[in-house]
Amino acid sequence: MATGRPPGRGRPAPKRPPGGRSRARPMIARHPAREAPFPALDRAGFSAAQLEAGEEDVLDIRNIQGNILAGFNKDFQTLLFLRIVEPDEFREWLKDLVPFVASTAEVLAFNRLFKEIRARRKSDSRTVQATWMNLAFSASGLAKLAPRAITKFTDVAFREGLRRRSRALGDPTSGEGSPDQWVVGGRGTEADVILIFAADDRDDLFAEVARIEDSIFSARTADGRPLRCGVEIVFKQHGAVLPPPLTGHEHFGFLDGISQPGLRGRISEDVHDVLTLRQNPDNPEQGKPGQELVWPGEFVFGYHGQDPRGKTSNAKGRDSLAPEGKAVAPAWARDGSYLVFRRLRQDVPGFREFVRTEAERLGLSPELLAAKIVGRFRSGAPVMRTVDHDDLALAGNECANNDFVFAQSSASRAAIPLARKLDDSMCRPAPPAEPDEGGVVCPFAAHIRKTYPRNDAGTLDPSIGGVTTQTHRLLRRGIPFGTPYPENPPADFTDSGDRGLLFLAYQTSIEDQFEFVQRRWANAPEFKDRSEHHALRSGYDLIIGQNGRPGDQRRRQFVLPMAGADGRLRHEMLETRTDWVIPTGGGYFFAPSISAL
Ligand code: N7H
């Protein structure tokens, strides 16, 4: 593990190797060797729930970058955006960087060790800390390094890049939100490379970033002359978890990072050595209760993906490098993944004001209306299990806080059964989730119902249900940026308003995953209505949905079904022309395997 301060800055320049290049190598100072303990799974705790996963892929976790499957999960992150100006020099510089690229094996080992220590100490301790780095290339960056290879990536979104896809995503075409004004990724500010640094400690993070910046700014020949290293810095962005009481929450106040796809796949030949622990004794197709297992090819090239035509979500599809029998990326893309980055500014006072005035109009509490817009209360408790009030116990109950679907699948169950206890501290009895086919409990346009409709069937694509929905999943790795907006700001409070989410997500198809979720679900008012209410649309996801249709002036509606006092259903309509989540930068990237690097 990387503990302690890296000895990067101020080191004496290494001697020039005899007969070597004029560069003072190594340009990037090295940490002391790291040793990564790899704790075995706690068999005593999990063996009852582990299943033989003999059919599942063995993932090359030493070759896959660490943020993709394990997730850095750190309090502090910095994103550094680079432009390649001299490909040959850059290649030399990159060689020194590659040993520092964290692998899934390292990050997974750390995360498990961290959790083990926390479980025994019953609190977070600073016993183990790490500083990680990962990187990815945009299509323009790859084209500079391997001009022919780029044509082998068939994902049109990746090849075109985010700036050119921005209009189709519904982004504003002028003013704030339009690529012309993006701080990174707009015209003239597009990056070829993104470096992601993450650490538990802010000083460790800054030291690591400074070490790499030094290698860019201060590269010198042995006799002290400045040396070009082939890259320049386009933009630097810090992110950090919010301070208490908002730790773990995003700027609107909601707990984030609750629901992620579970991953099929093993990390060794041992059939029990699975990446996602199977913790639901009632359902072998899930990790934690409610966490469907998805084939790893949805997120990493070279493994089985979901079978979109399969009858069940555990049907395995083809190799994600050639899902229809024809390669969608070059062979060296194996163990790599596409990375979508969006810098999303959040207008916190604007969102709060909308919720307050609409709640007053409808006679609801602002907390309840906000929960209906997201599908979860601020604590993270899902409305599907607590219809009208926040429930902190439910929010912390990992057996129930993600264990719900919206509609019944064919064989109907009266209610979703509660999972048996997994761990005394996390699992307690919780209220059941009843089927909600009318969107009365969780509106169809609620953020979590739009972005992961679970077993809803859709009207845009009648086949969308429990199975094909799993082909549109994302591994989200975002972190907030900026300081929180005060709960009760003083009258003279002013600030830049520059706060939001650094949205990062991995996948093997930008078109079918990130863009599908944004365009076909969040931005689509017709997804989903009930067949008997054709006139009534679900509306836009009020968090991220965008209406870029010409003439609509970004008008967004949200249908809120409510049961009246007389027990009859009425459909309230919320409407706004304001976006509270505004793109201010971004890019589409590809994170190659460590061997490809
Ligand atoms: Fe969302 N928010 O605070 O309201 N998101 N999101 N998101 N999001 C989720 O389950 C939020 C964004 C997804 O499996 C939660 O982790 C905000 C984009 C998906 O049930 C909350 C922003 C996209 C899920 C938020 C933002 C998505 C999800 C619940 C921007 C993709 C999982 C906590 C500033 C295009 C759904 C959780 C599931 C959850 C919020 C962006 C997608 C609270 C503020 C751009 C797939």
Any overview of this molecule?
- The structure is a single chain.
- This protein has 597 residues and is an alpha+beta fold.
- 19% of the residues lie in helices and 16% in strands.
- It is built from 13 helices and 15 strands.
- The chain has helices spanning 43-46, 66-69, 87-97, 104-121, 139-145, 156-160, 162-165, 202-217, 348-362, 366-374, 392-395, 447-451, 514-522; strands at residues 76-84, 131-137, 193-199, 231-240, 262-263, 293-294, 304-306, 316-319, 337-346, 475-476, 479-481, 500-507, 556-563, 569-576, 581-591.
- Strands 9, 10, 11, 12 and 15 form a five-stranded antiparallel sheet that branches. It has a four-stranded antiparallel sheet with strand order 2-3-1-4.
- Strand 13 and strand 14 form a beta hairpin.
- Helix 9 packs across helix 10 (366-374).
- The longest helix is centred in the N-terminal third of the chain and has 18 residues, at 104-121.
- The protein starts with 42 loop residues before the first helix and ends in a 6-residue tail after the last strand.
- The model is unreliable at 1-50 and 409-421 (pLDDT under 50).
- The structure holds delta-meso nitroheme.
- Delta-meso nitroheme is lined by residues 250, 252, 254, 256-259, 342, 344, 346, 374, 376, 447-448, 451-452, 474, 500-501, 503, 514, 517-518, 543-544, 581.
- Residues 250, 252, 254, 256-259, 342, 344, 346, 374, 376, 447-448, 451-452, 474, 500-501, 503, 514, 517-518, 543-544, 581 line the site of delta-meso nitroheme.
